[in-house]
Every structure is written in C-alpha cells, then in structure tokens.
UniProtKB/TrEMBL annotation:
<feature type="domain" description="Shikimate dehydrogenase substrate binding N-terminal">
    <location>
        <begin position="241"/>
        <end position="321"/>
    </location>
</feature>
<dbReference type="InterPro" id="IPR046346">
    <property type="entry name" value="Aminoacid_DH-like_N_sf"/>
</dbReference>
<dbReference type="InterPro" id="IPR013785">
    <property type="entry name" value="Aldolase_TIM"/>
</dbReference>
<dbReference type="Pfam" id="PF08501">
    <property type="entry name" value="Shikimate_dh_N"/>
</dbReference>
<dbReference type="InterPro" id="IPR041121">
    <property type="entry name" value="SDH_C"/>
</dbReference>
<dbReference type="GO" id="GO:0004764">
    <property type="term" value="F:shikimate 3-dehydrogenase (NADP+) activity"/>
</dbReference>
<dbReference type="InterPro" id="IPR036291">
    <property type="entry name" value="NAD(P)-bd_dom_sf"/>
</dbReference>
<dbReference type="InterPro" id="IPR001381">
    <property type="entry name" value="DHquinase_I"/>
</dbReference>
<dbReference type="Pfam" id="PF01487">
    <property type="entry name" value="DHquinase_I"/>
</dbReference>
<dbReference type="InterPro" id="IPR013708">
    <property type="entry name" value="Shikimate_DH-bd_N"/>
</dbReference>
<dbReference type="GO" id="GO:0019632">
    <property type="term" value="P:shikimate metabolic process"/>
</dbReference>
<dbReference type="GO" id="GO:0009423">
    <property type="term" value="P:chorismate biosynthetic process"/>
</dbReference>
<feature type="domain" description="SDH C-terminal">
    <location>
        <begin position="453"/>
        <end position="481"/>
    </location>
</feature>
<dbReference type="InterPro" id="IPR022893">
    <property type="entry name" value="Shikimate_DH_fam"/>
</dbReference>
<protein>
    <recommendedName>
        <fullName>Shikimate dehydrogenase substrate binding N-terminal domain-containing protein</fullName>
    </recommendedName>
</protein>
<dbReference type="Pfam" id="PF18317">
    <property type="entry name" value="SDH_C"/>
</dbReference>
<dbReference type="GO" id="GO:0003855">
    <property type="term" value="F:3-dehydroquinate dehydratase activity"/>
</dbReference>
Length: 485
C-alpha cells in the first residue's frame, strides 16, 4: 500500500465470539455516546438491528468514572463488548495521561469485558507509522503485534488507491490467527464489505448515516440489507461498478437484491477507481467475475479488455466487463445503447404527439446526441454545445444527453439552455441521480416528452445481469426496486 499510515493494535479477549449466519465475521457497531445513558440507548438500537458486538468508545464520554461506569456498562450490556479508549495521537478523543487510559482498559478486562482494543504503543511503548509497499512488511507487523500476546490482530490503514486493499486481503486470508484488517476512506470500502470472503474476524458499521468513528464506514443497515454481509463466503463471486464518482450508484442495491432473490452466490460492490488498467491487473482472479463500467472509464475499458464485441467498438465505449470462466479473459460489452434505445422507443410510443404508427418509432427522426464522441463513425455531424443554443434545422427532433452534466451533486447544471428546448419533441437524459434533472424539468416545461435515465438504467441492467450470471433478468424485481428508490 503506497503512502498509507497505519493504526496498529491488538485485541485481548475473554471470549471466543462467533458470527450469526453463513460466515463467522462479526458485525460491530461503534458506540460513541457522550454519556453512559446515551450509550445504552445506542446499544439497544444496535441489538435491535442485528449487531453482534458493540465497540464502546470510552474516549467519547464527557465524564468518565472508570470503575463505576465500566461495571455498569459490562453488567448491563446484553451483547458482546469491545472497549476502546482511543488517544488523540491515534485518531481518538482522549487527551489525558496514557497510564490512566491503559489502566482503565485493564480494569475493563478484570470486570469482564469481552474484548479490549489496545494500540501497539500501549503494548510495547513505541508508536509506529509505516509506509507500506509490500505484503511482507505487513507480515512483519503482524508478527510484532502477535508477540505482545494479543489474541486478535488488528491493522487499520488508509487507502491511497483501491488496489491497496488487495494487500490487506492477502494478509487476512493467510493469517494463522484471528485478524481484523480495515482500509479506510471510500477507496477502502471493499475491505469492510468483502472481509467475510477472506476470513476477516470483524467489520464495523455505523448506526446512523454520517456518524462514523473512522472514514469510510458503511451503515449497519447497508451491510445487512444492501450487501447481505451474512451470506458472503469464500466462494462468493464479486461483481461491482467501476467509476469516479461511484457512491451515488443504485447498482449495488439493485444487483444484490436480485442475487439474493434467485439464490445466486454473488455480491456487487462499488469500486472507486482512479486507474482502470491498474485496477483490473490487481483484481485479476476468477473471484472478480464482472464489472459495470461508468464515467470516466468507459473509453479506457476498450483498451483494457482482452476482447471487445463489435458494437462496443463501434460505439467507442465499454460499460460491461465479464471475465470469461474458461480462460479468465476480460470481454467488453456495451449495454448502454440497448437501454437507451429501448427507453427512447418506449417514450415515443407512449406519446401520441410523436408516434402513431406501427413500425420503428425511430425511423426518420433527427437525433441530437450530447456526448457522442463517435458521431463521425455513425454518419453524424459534430457540433459544439454552444452551437446547440441556436441549432434548429427542424422541429420535433429527439435530444439525448449521454454526459454526466446535471448529475448529483451538480444538479444546477444543464447541457442545453431552456430557450433551445422548444425544438425537441422528446428529451432523454442518461443521468438518473436525480431522476428529474434540470434538463428534463426545463424540457417538460417547454412541452417536450421526457424520458429519464432510470428507464435506460433498468434496460442496460437487464443485459448486464444476464451476462454476469447466465440467468434471465428478474425484470419485475428490477423495476419494483427502482420504483421504491
């Protein structure tokens, strides 16, 4: 992992623990209340939603009487407890004398805490920040932490690139002792989602969106309901969406719900990727079986795939990558065009103003495609966005925005000003977050029929699902899921 600072600790335990479900990975919720009463309220929430263990962050308490408060917390918590008293120098809130802090953790063990989390400095009186580039370096740290007598090893680092996580996965899967390996920030999110696949002892999730004890923590609800963490095992196939940004994507919810519904042993996760070629070279095992590819990597995917189907070459973009089981080669497809064409056709058929015939509703229509880098390849004429403001060779045209202009968070942007939209009978926007972009709202106000990116998204997702799984797409489930969103 390049230039990644590490938090090194060992966890001492009074219990063997154990997960609930098809894997043994524990789900842990940090409890960060300012008072003991608030901590008990949060513990009750954690138990209700299915958490296995709570991490009680003593450093967040505004007032702390060690013996009284620890005894209260331990005796009255009906769940497994992990006590953490994190100092400022390790990213926590505690600023007092270190010996007092360590004495409190020792007391927690004496009083019956299931686990305590102690930093390496607290064990051997040295503080270490490492810059890692090789798995062997982490291996040396594992041996050093283990020599302190810790029952469970924990390393938390910060991802510079999503490929950094692969190093942590290798350490976890080869560890001879229980191991917690976390890579923070959004680029390290997959370390939290896929840890059951590699045998990670524990992963953290938050009770509420945005209330995190470390960067990149997902919510418990997402771990359980979106990613179905309980059902991820060593033989689970990994799929995901490659993009930058990628956090807005609804694909993980859509695909994971479909996988679960049909009993397909797969999980679909977000990959925040800077360099596509590096990502594909790093996650090259058969376990990483397929990817959706979105902005800004669709064009680069043409060069990164071993084979690309002709239509994707013609379009100049790949949005679906499948690893062929027989030889591991990456095959590039484009399902966007299927989703877009079917969405526009359905929109035209649903509007009597545009189409009343029986043949193809696209026949004879003049299309203006924003973002059509391959316009010359399909016999089109290229114009600039500025020229579109006065571009009106005829009325009743079809406008399709295939760029990210207007996507969250920049929802105030639009590729075409409102005054130019009166020339169009139908306006389609591939952006689906938000569903009604500024372009579509202004097109509707101008009298055009509008088609949202949600329709395209569902159509292309059908095709991706079938290529990923070899199964027919559960179309009703896809549509029902998207309608609830």
């Amino acid at each position: 992992m390049e230039s990644s600072s590490l938090s090194l600790s060992g966890i001492e335990t009074n219990t063997g623990g154990g997960g609930m479900g098809t894997n043994s990975t524990l789900i842990c919720a940090p409890i960060m209340g300012k008072s003991i009463d608030q901590m008990f309220i949060d513990m009750a929430k954690a138990k209700e939603i299915g958490v296995d263990i709570v991490e009680i962050r003593l450093d967040y308490l505004s007032s702390f009487s060690p013996r009284q408060d620890l005894q209260n917390l331990i005796e009255n918590c009906s769940m497994l407890t992990l006590f953490t008293y994190r100092p400022k120098w390790e990213g926590g809130e505690y600023e007092g004398d270190d010996s007092i802090r360590l004495d409190a953790l020792k007391l927690a063990m004496e009083l019956g805490a299931d686990y305590i989390d102690v930093e390496l400095q607290g064990m051997v009186d040295t503080y270490i920040v490492f810059y890692l580039s090789e798995v062997e370096e982490i291996g040396d740290l594992v041996a050093r932490i283990q020599s302190t007598g810790a029952d469970i090893l924990k390393i938390a680092t910060t991802a510079v690139d999503v490929t950094d996580v692969a190093c942590m996965f290798q350490i976890i899967v080869h560890s001879q002792v229980p191991f917690i390996g976390l890579v923070m920030t959004e680029k390290g999110l997959i370390s939290r989602l896929l840890c059951p696949k590699y045998g990670g002892y524990l992963t953290f999730g938050t009770l509420e969106e945005g209330v995190v004890s470390a960067p990149g923590q997902p919510t418990i609800k997402d771990l359980l309901d979106k990613y179905h963490l309980r059902h991820i095992g060593a033989d689970t196939k990994v799929f995901g969406i490659i993009g930058k940004p990628v956090g807005h994507s609804k694909s993980p919810l859509l695909f994971n719900k479909a996988f679960k519904a049909v009993g397909f042993n797969g999980v679909y996760v977000p990959f925040l990727v800077d360099y596509l070629a590096k990502f594909l070279a790093t996650y090259a095992s058969a376990d990483f079986a397929g990817f959706s590819c979105t902005i800004p990597h669709k064009e680069a995917a043409l060069q990164c795939c071993d084979e690309v189907v002709p239509i994707a070459k013609l379009i100049g973009a790949v949005n679906t990558i499948v690893r062929r089981p027989s030889d591991g080669k990456l095959i590039g497809y484009n399902t966007d065009y299927i989703g877009a064409i079917s969405a526009i056709e359905d929109g035209m058929r649903g509007s009597n103003k545009i189409y009343q015939g029986t043949g193809s509703p696209l026949a004879g229509k003049l299309f203006v495609v924003i973002g059509a880098g391959g316009a010359d390849l399909v016999g089109g004429d290229a114009v600039t966005l500025a020229q579109l403001e006065t571009f009106r060779p005829e009325d009743g045209m079809i406008l399709a925005n295939t760029t990210s202009i207007g996507m969250q968070p920049k929802i105030e942007e639009t590729p075409v000003p409102k005054h130019a939209l009166s020339a169009y009978a139908l306006v389609f926007d591939a952006v689906y977050t938000p569903k009604m972009t500024r372009l579509l709202l202004e097109a509707e106000e101008s009298g055009a029929t509008v088609v949202t990116g949600v329709e395209m998204f569902i159509g292309q997702a059908y095709e991706q699902y079938e290529r990923f799984t070899g199964l027919p797409a559960p179309k009703e489930l896809f549509r029902e899921t998207m309608s609830k969103l």
